[in-house]
Amino acid sequence: YPGLIWENEEKTMFRIPWKHAGKQDYNQEVDASIFKAWAVFKGKYKEGEKAEPATWKTRLRCALNKSPDFEEVTERSQLDISEPYKVYRIVPEEEQKCKLGLGPKCTLNEITDMDCNPSSIEELMKETPSAVEEYLGTIKRSPSPLQESCRNPPIPDWWIHQSSPALSLMTGFAAYEP
């Protein structure tokens, strides 16, 4: 498809042309061809039907955003140029499993070699008593804001409301009536 190219040598990111239909040099046959192909593939368009390139584009965008296999790389996308494009990254299977908590190892962003299983996370969350005491000591030494800055504003009239029979139905408790 015209403009569909790899963004990097590793072939883990790709560009999709993303020209707006309102541009002067917009050509539906070229600029919407990948979106049309997706609509045909998904059975949402058959030759001879009314062309809806904006709908096709939306469907492909939604499919890419919903899929765990792809992630938009917004910082690499260029939408304000004469030949605009979006960049998507192919998410490795291990990373997908890790995000779902199914994989044995995580290598996401700053987190490296961290077990994703629940027991490992529990171990990380356990703190030694001395660390907890140190934390509580820090809280006790932290300055509190001045009392006058903590005053609550008066409650506006619109906030005070009558009890509603729906409230007792929803919660099982009757609302307090002064």
From TrEMBL:
Gene3D superfamilies for this protein: Winged helix-like DNA-binding domain superfamily/Winged helix DNA-binding domain
Predominant place of localization: nucleus
A GO CC term assigned to this protein in UniProt: nucleus
GO biological process, one term: positive regulation of transcription by RNA polymerase II
Pfam family, one: IRF
GO terms for MF: DNA-binding transcription factor activity, RNA polymerase II-specific; RNA polymerase II cis-regulatory region sequence-specific DNA binding
Keyword Transcription on entry: yes
Domain IRF tryptophan pentad repeat: 1-92
Subcellular location, record wording: Nucleus
UniProt xrefs under CDD domains: IRF (cd00103)
UniProt keyword terms in alphabetical order: Activator, DNA-binding, Nucleus, Transcription, Transcription regulation
Protein name (database record): IRF tryptophan pentad repeat domain-containing protein
Species of provenance: Micrurus spixii
Lineage: Eukaryota, Metazoa, Chordata, Craniata, Vertebrata
